[in-house]
Amino acid sequence: MDIKQLSDAVAVSPQVLVADLPAVRAAGYRTVICNRPDGEGPDQPTFVEIEAAARKEGIAAYYLPVESGKISAREAAQFGELLRTVPGPVLAYCRSGMRSASLWALSGASGYAAGDIVAAGKAAGYDLGAVAARLGESGAGAEKCYDVVIVGAGAAGVATASSLLARDADLDIAIIDPAPIHYYQPGWTMVGAGVFKPETTARRMVDVLPHKVQWIEAAVAAFEPENDAVVLESCRKIRYRQLVVCAGLKLDWNAIEGLPQTLGTNGVTSNYRYDLAPYTWQLVQQLKRGRALFTQPPMPIKCAGAPQKAMYMSSDHWLRTGRLGQIEVEFFNAGAVLFGVADYVPALMKYVERYDIALNFGFNLSAVDGPGKRAMFTRTLPGGATERFETTFDMIHVVPPQKAPDFIRSSPLADTAGWVDVDPATLRHKRYGNIYGLGDATNTTNAKTAAAARKQAPVVAHNVLAALRGRRELANYDGYGSCPLTVERGKIVLAEFLYGGKVAPTFPKWLIDGTQPSRLAWLLKDRLLPPLYWRGMLKGREWLAHPRLAD
Which keywords appear in this protein's UniProt record, sorted alphabetically (predicted)? Predict the structure, then answer.
């Protein structure tokens, strides 16, 4: 754990994990305060998980979630009141520790002058100069203006930075992201099936980012497009000539009643979280008989095929081990079809029949009772009325509803539904000409997959550079997305398509027929795509992804 002391009574840290609580107790902390809203990151345990683990260690736990960069006077006062009333010493945490440090500075609980607050923050590794300015003392100097600022260091952000530098190595680029770890999220389905080890899907952010990029290890709080500025959670402003926004998705675990309290226990799992994918494989191996449920929420979600990938791979294991006859497998899909591109449905239906899977369309998971092993679904009837349906389970794989991050949805960059509002071809913002968006947080209608980001990044890199140089020739994105549907160990239905669901295979049909299960497609997913991701896409090598110029 990376605990930073701000005063004798208060320390802050990045995200606390369940496994950290014994060390927190051993270090003498009697209270932990969570300042991070649930669902901000793919490796983030919910507060109820932390609270339960803290209770076992005799540590008090409190939840005071604060949206990044938007600390109100009321929230600062609440934090100060907690510090004055809870058993100390106190460890407060958020994604990076910055929000907690800022709350401490603004709460008045320390009794420090503004200059001493800045000094304490600096000693702990946090720049509280902008907070000092809010307290009435100068501490934040003029900010540098970068050629390009990229918000988000996931697949889309890192690939865009590398593609830009491959075109112009002298560009001054900053990438903003507080996460210390970069994840290869397409690998988590394979982790949940016992094919990949979880650690192979994670690398230190510092080892992934291009060396010439300035990494600003902080969270974004707001955008000021009229001033060409991004506001960080510390209230510091970063200025830009061109802005690229690729902030990913927020997983809304709390939208399903009871789910946060039982995730990772009672047979409730999800491959959509790094620490839970191994639990999926554990459950699959342990289940001998009973009922296994797999759910899919309303669209959009990242990798629309992932919910059923987990189902097929689990069923394949049960078939191979002679247990499938004793296990009822059911798929509860909030949508109306098995897969959005009809050309691939026949091949998938053969596996549905092979595994004797019961399909239930129009059912949205609304609540989970982990200890009682019961799942509640809501279904909309033809007349518009809704009904609730309840069923039992021995294992349930849950996919949570997903939406754009809070700081995107509340920003001037968002459309009415909360997504970054961009032109679907050029990926340039519809209202702000020097802003581009790509990846999962935009309102484009393509599949939200890493394969889509691989195609989008060169388009954005080309168009950003054209804007910087005053050129008019723009590249267009055609909506390409890919979903390697793992239907059994050793075979994949390789779905590739453009906007409108138009099938767009990369390989000739004699090599890989994407509408049929293929062993070669499995080798692509298992052996080739991970190194292509780490050594190709993230390094700016645009193999089979060179941008197409507009006509």
Answer: Transferase
